[in-house]
Amino acid sequence: MIYEFKGFIPVVHKSSFVHPLAAVTGNVIIGKNCYIGPGAAIRGDWGQIILEDGVNVQENCTVHMFPGKSITLKGSAHVGHGAIIHGANLGRNCLIGMNTVIMDDAEIGDESIVGAMAFVKAETKIPPRSLVVGNPAKVIKQVSDEMIAWKTKGTQLYQQLPQDCHNSLKAVEPLREVPENMKIQEGAYDTLREHFLRRQESHNKKE
């Protein structure tokens, strides 16, 4: 659902996909190839929210702010299921883990990874390429080239998802029985652990 509020109408690029069960309100600008999942709420009622190109805000996320604040989720920012972004700015190509809470005036640096269920306090400044975990969240190490490559590949799946949704997503009546020829989707992405194990196996074979 897309809602006007006090004369502000959200702007959504035609290449992006906002699920019908999401709510986008007011002064919100959504760039190209963005995905907004069902249950997400992006409320630009008290300030402006900008999602640059390639951002995904997954299921049951909330993006909001205190009155008079405006925030930006920079290009390819990846916001995992159930996360809350309240008045914080996200850097380019960062990853926000599931059920993370990031509070007002926090700044997440480019290509940083914030672990699931972390709590980032208000006004926290996270440097670029930081791996952040815990409550309160702390930087524990730098993000490696391999980790950011893994993250980037996952985000690319979400950048393809809007077009896939435009092409194939539709409301239907459910089947009442499982078809005999029921297919299972092929894997297109490894977990981080699987990614490192696969790389190690490949390295061992070369030796």
UniProtKB/TrEMBL annotation:
Gene3D superfamilies: Hexapeptide repeat proteins (2.160.10.10)
SUPFAM superfamilies, A to Z: Trimeric LpxA-like enzymes
A Pfam family annotated for this UniProt entry: Hexapep
Protein name (database record): Phenylacetic acid degradation protein PaaY
Organism: Corallibacter vietnamensis
